[in-house]
Amino acid sequence: MNINEPCVTNILLYINDTLKTKNSVNFNDVMSAPKCKKYSVSEIGKALEFLRRNGFVKANSRFGCSELLEFSATAVTPLGKEHISKIR
Question: What average pLDDT does this structure show over 60-77?
Answer without folding.
Answer: 85
